[in-house]
């Protein structure tokens, strides 16, 4: 069965420090992996995706994520956090073996960047 | 492009009333999804369409919920009769599927429903 786990409900980091938001996944085939960000009272916004190729993917607002097949992980990272990065972050996966178009979302991680 | 457009942004209604939420997907997108977000259950997929045809409605909670997509540019999610436990934010999202199945979702701003 396909699933996504975000083990941390809340992550706090000081402004200027590096941040990591964790995500692990389970799929039958090859994974298509996505990160989304949600600001208060807004919809989810696409940040980045991994489909194939280079394991390090760069996305919007200076975020990047590293695909690790052996650990089935796709952690979101940023070298230097900004207060404006404070938001809710969702990891999602699609299974390439699934002929449908079902996206599986994690439960979200609330990131707070402390000034 | 204007993005995915949802209306209304906020709806307050009384238990038993009919609620209709509307969505206009991004032009050219062939998939449309309806999600519900609550604190307790997070983000739940209710139903999705491909080329206006419902593909998977297993997430629709009860017969009180129904969704339609009469054409490529419009979809509705209807709740009749509404109940307080239906209070949530309802999101519509659309995507375009390429040959490699890589289309990411584009979300609307959501419709916040409060049923009293």
How is this structure best described in words?
The complex is a heterodimer of chains A (115) and B (116). Chain A has no helices and 12 strands. Helices cover 0% and strands 52% of the residues of chain A. Chain A has strands at 3-5, 10-14, 19-21, 24-26, 31-38, 44-50, 56-58, 64-68, 73-78, 87-95, 104-105, 109-114. The model of chain A has no long low-confidence stretch (mean pLDDT 93). Helices cover 0% and strands 53% of the residues of chain B. Chain B has strands at residues 5-7, 10-13, 19-24, 31-38, 42-50, 53-56, 65-71, 74-79, 88-95, 106-107, 111-115. In chain B, a hairpin with a 2-residue loop joins strand 5 and strand 6. The relative contact order of chain B is 0.33. Chain A binds chain B through residues 32, 34, 36, 41-46, 49, 51, 90, 92, 94, 96, 100-103, 105, 107-108, and chain B through 4, 31, 33, 42-43, 45, 48, 50, 55-56, 91, 93, 95, 97, 100-110, 112.
Secondary structure layout:
The complex is a heterodimer of chains A (about 120) and B (about 120).
Chain A: E1 3-5, E2 10-14, E3 19-21, E4 24-26, E5 31-38, E6 44-50, E7 56-58, E8 64-68, E9 73-78, E10 87-95, E11 104-105, E12 109-114
Parallel strand pairs in A: 2-12
Antiparallel strand pairs in A: 1-4, 3-9, 5-6, 5-10, 7-8, 8-9, 10-11, 10-12
Chain B: E1 5-7, E2 10-13, E3 19-24, E4 31-38, E5 42-50, E6 53-56, E7 65-71, E8 74-79, E9 88-95, E10 106-107, E11 111-115
Parallel strand pairs in B: 2-11
Antiparallel strand pairs in B: 1-3, 3-8, 4-5, 4-9, 5-6, 7-8, 9-10, 9-11
């Amino acid at each position: 069965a396909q699933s996504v786990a975000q083990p941390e409900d809340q992550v706090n980091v000081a402004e200027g420090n590096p941040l990591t938001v964790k995500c692990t996944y389970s799929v039958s085939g090859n994974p298509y992996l996505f990160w989304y960000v949600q600001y208060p009272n807004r919809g989810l916004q696409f940040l980045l995706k991994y489909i194939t190729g280079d394991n390090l993917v760069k996305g919007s607002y200076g975020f990047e994520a590293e695909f690790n097949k052996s650990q089935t992980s796709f952690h979101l990272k940023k070298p230097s956090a900004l207060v404006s990065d404070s938001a809710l972050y969702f990891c999602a996966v699609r299974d390439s073996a699934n002929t449908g178009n079902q996206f599986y979302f994690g439960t979200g991680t609330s990131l707070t960047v402390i000034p | 492009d204007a993005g995915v457009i949802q209306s209304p942004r906020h709806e307050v209604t009384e238990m038993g009333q009919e609620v209709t939420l509307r969505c206009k997907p991004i032009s050219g997108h062939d998939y449309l999804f309806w999600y519900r977000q609550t604190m307790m259950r997070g983000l739940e997929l209710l139903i999705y369409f491909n080329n206006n045809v419902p593909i998977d409605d297993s997430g629709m909670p009860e017969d009180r919920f129904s969704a339609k997509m009469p054409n490529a540019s419009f979809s509705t999610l209807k709740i009749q009769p509404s109940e307080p436990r239906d209070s949530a934010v309802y999101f519509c999202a659309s995507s375009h599927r390429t040959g490699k199945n890589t289309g990411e979702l584009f979300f609307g701003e959501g419709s916040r429903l409060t049923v009293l």
